[in-house]
Amino acid sequence: MSFKITKAVIPAAGLGTRFLPATKAMPKEMLPVVDKPAIQYVVEEAVAAGLTDVLMITGRNKNALENHFDRVGELEATLLQKGDIERLRKVNYATDLAEVHYVRQGDPKGLGHAVLRARMHVGHEPFAVLLGDDIIDARDVLLSRMIEEQGLRNATIVALLEVDPSVVHMYGVATIEPTETDDVVRVTGLVEKPTKENAPSNYAIIGRYVLQPEIFDILEHTKPGKGGEIQLTDALETLAANPSIAGGVYGVVFRGRRYDTGDRLDYIKAIVQLAVEREDLGPDLRPWLKEFAKDLE
User: Fold this and answer.
1) Of 42, 109, 116, 262, which is most buried by a Cβ count within 10 Å?
2) What is the pLDDT of residues 190-228, one digit of tens each?
3) Range 158-179 burial, b when 16+ CB lie within 10 A, else e
4) Residue 155 backbone phi and psi in degrees, to 5
């Protein structure tokens, strides 16, 4: 049976230790990318793909996430009084983006455990999972393409990216077979963070999934894997190895622009890349960057 997918799950319970001390009191998902927190880009992507019911899996010290997507009456009144309608529009935009819900993860047992915490909210429908560390450029289609393939194949769909073999140890990596569609492959196996020598390919899972609800039963029985955590990759491996359970696993190969905000250097690159293409910032930033680069040489 084909369902219209409306629910997105965004795990946001991580401690953000790579960005300490900035994340000591502020969630890493609230770190600004130009002038919006990283998490807002992710919610905007979900909404653009037709997902209006968003569940965030949070942890301690994540109240700022709820505050960002809630009304701030005093701020709104001040902006209105000043006649600053453009900033008021931006503030209200975040509030009105989607119906956002929250549930605590509790024990930090890994991504698989975080997804399992969404079971009561999701029920028996397919749903999307978007990781907050990955920002997909709004001009490039990925999530809506994955949802389309899920409807056609009634299977779990993951996003795959060809990466340099030297960095496969940072990802879940897929064993793949081609299909009749150029940008879609069948996933026959998955391994979490393999060594370069043991990686089955250089097709890495990036932070977008469209999952069948059967994943919850599998996660219930998935034992801790790499890092002593319940790995979503391990549960997906079970689905890939048993396609009769829920249609198996397919991958949409993404060839667009992706920004990794979970790494400090890539976070800085993301800000620069997005800012130079902004109409309000690019014209002044681009020539400055060129001059700055000359000084580096």
Assistant:
1) 42
2) 888 888 888 899 999 999 999 999 999 999 998 887 778
3) bbbbebeeeebeebbbbbbeee
4) -140, 170
Domain count, the chain: 1
Pick from 203, 201, 213: which is nearest to 255 by CA? 203
Contact 3, 49 (CB under 8 A): no
The strand ranges marked E within 106-146 are 127-130, 134-136
User: What is the pTM for the complete model shown?
Assistant: 0.91
C-alpha distances in angstroms, 122 versus 103, 170, 210, 235? 12, 29, 12, 17
Q: The tokens of 131 are what?
A: 């990781």
Distance CA 132, CA 59 (A): 14
- In the chain, the amino acid numbered 169 is H
CB 31 within 8 A of CB 19: yes
- Tell me the residue range of the domain where 252 lies: 7-262
With respect to residue 278, please indicate whether it lies within any of the assigned structural domains.
Answer: no
Residue 267 domain-assigned (yes or no):
no
Q: Is residue 77, in this structure, part of any structural domain at all? A: yes
